[in-house]
């Protein structure tokens, strides 16, 4: 899974930056929700740099597991490196805040939360969003089975608390984008690095899935149910 994410998001860094309109919208909501964050920050799964570019958080280090995402991000902020948020290459108590937009669901969030807790200073904020169960319903309808292992909100908050964080605030937001047909949706997903057949290995199975999208001729709505959380290290 992790090697696939590295490959997929590296391959589509340029198109991701153009196509990821919902991720951009989510970044703007997160920045507004975070309010004032000062000091040295960490952007987890920084991608092409939406949080850095849309905010005034300029003393920030971006990390991403995908090499080409990091290369793209460095056009705007040279303080960026290839790293895995499940195993951060930083000392304890290194950062004054941490943020993450549309990235944590690609990781083992227990490991990621533990690492953020480790590198964050006491009483400092971790602000993030993450898709939760009920996201991408149209994709699963077209494919005909559950395709993504999104967690429900209570599970995410429980894991966060078990990692040592206290929760100051959270809310859910639904984001939508309509496409004229299934194949347009599939093209968008590929351009934003999302695979809908992670569990399928054979070429024939992949072809069957593509055919399902091609055969879906009606307008279709891509939805994300996003949980926004502001937590702090106690």
What's a quick, concise take on this entry?
This protein has 234 residues and is of the alpha/beta class. It is built from ten helices and seven strands.
Could you characterize the architecture of this molecule?
The protein has one domain (2-177, 224-233): 3-Layer(aba) Sandwich (Rossmann fold), CATH 3.40.50. It is built from ten helices and seven strands. The chain has helices at residues 2-11, 13-19, 21-34, 50-54, 67-73, 109-119, 137-143, 153-162, 182-191, 203-215; strands spanning 41-44, 60-64, 80-82, 95-100, 120-131, 165-179, 220-233. Helix 4 links the parallel strand 1 and strand 2 (60-64). Helix 9 (182-191) packs across helix 10. The protein starts with a helix and ends with a strand. The mean pLDDT is 92.
Structural features:
7 strands; Rossmann fold; 234 residues
Structural classification:
alpha/beta
Low-confidence runs: none
Number of helices: 10
Question: How many strands, which pairing sense, and closed or not: the largest β-sheet?
Answer: 7 strands, mixed
Q: Strand order across the biggest sheet?
A: 3-2-1-4-5-7-6
The name of the CATH architecture is 3-Layer(aba) Sandwich
Portion of residues in beta strands equals 25-35%
Spell out the CATH superfamily: Vaccinia Virus protein VP39
SSE order, one letter for each helix or strand:
HHHEHEHEEHEHHEHHE
Terminal Cα span = 32 Å
Helix percent reads: 40-55%
For the record, the CATH class is: Alpha Beta
Fold-level CATH name: Rossmann fold
The average pLDDT is 92
Number of domains: 1
Shape: globular
Count of strand segments:
7
Radius of gyration (CA) equals 18 Å
